[in-house]
Specification:
This protein is an alpha/beta fold and 173 residues long. It has one helix and ten strands; from the N terminus they run αββββββββββ. It has two domains: 1-38; 46-172, Sandwich (Immunoglobulin-like), CATH 2.60.40.420. Helix content is 21%, strand content 32%. It starts with a helix and ends with a strand. Bound molecules: copper (II) ion (CU). Copper (II) ion is lined by residues 60, 68, 104, 155, 157, 160, 165.
Length: 173
C-alpha cells in the first residue's frame, strides 16, 4: 500500500465516521421529538388529546406571606397556577409535593370556595382539610375523570384558596 492509498483510506474512514455520527444524532433527535409528542403529562394550559392515563405532578408552596400557589415544579409555584385539561374517562394520577413551609393539600372540587369538600370525582383528593400534607411531604392519588366539565383544584386548608391556591381542571368530551 503506497502513501496515496493510505491517505485516501484515512479520508474514507473520517467521512464514514462523520456520516455515522450524523445518523446517530438525527435518530436521537427524532426519538426525542416522538417522545415529547407522546407525552400525556399536561403542562400549563395544554391538554392530553385522548383518554388513557396521565400523570400530573403538582407542587404546592408559598410565594409570599400573602400569596400561595401551585406549580409544575418546586421552583415554578405560581398564582395563578397551571391549567390542566384531560379527556373524559382519563385515569389521572396526581403526584403531590409540598414544597412550602406550611401544610397544604390538593382536592379537585366543583367550586373554588374555601375548604370545599365537594369532590368532582371519587378519590380526587390528596390528604384533607383536617390532615393536610406537611411541609416537604409527598402524597399521591389516582382517580377517573368520569364526567366532562370545568372543575377546580384547590388547597382545602382554611383561607388558602383566597391566597391563590386553586387552578382550573377541565375535562373535555
Ligand atoms: Cu394550602
Amino acid at each position: 500500500m503506497n502513501q496515496t492509498t493510505k491517505r485516501c483510506d484515512t479520508a474514507w474512514y473520517i467521512a464514514a465516521a462523520i456520516i455515522i455520527a450524523v445518523i446517530i444524532a438525527s435518530s436521537a433527535l427524532t426519538y426525542q421529538f416522538i417522545q415529547s409528542n407522546n407525552s400525556n403529562a399536561p403542562s400549563p394550559s395544554t391538554s392530553s388529546s385522548s383518554a388513557g392515563s396521565v400523570t400530573i405532578t403538582v407542587y404546592a408552596g408559598e410565594l409570599s406571606s400573602s400569596v400561595y400557589g401551585f406549580g409544575n415544579t418546586s421552583s415554578t409555584v405560581t398564582s395563578p397556577r397551571p391549567t390542566f385539561t384531560v379527556k373524559v374517562g382519563t385515569t389521572v394520577t396526581v403526584n403531590f409535593t409540598n414544597a412550602g413551609t406550611m401544610p397544604h393539600n390538593w382536592a379537585l372540587v366543583t367550586q373554588k370556595t374555601s375548604g370545599n369538600t365537594n369532590l368532582a370525582f371519587s378519590k380526587a383528593q390528596i390528604a384533607s382539610l383536617g390532615d393536610p400534607v406537611p411541609a416537604s411531604g409527598i402524597a399521591t392519588t389516582t382517580f377517573v375523570a368520569s364526567r366532562a366539565g370545568t372543575y377546580y383544584y384547590i388547597c382545602q386548608v382554611d383561607g388558602h384558596v383566597a391566597l391563590g391556591m386553586w387552578g382550573t381542571f377541565t375535562v373535555t368530551l
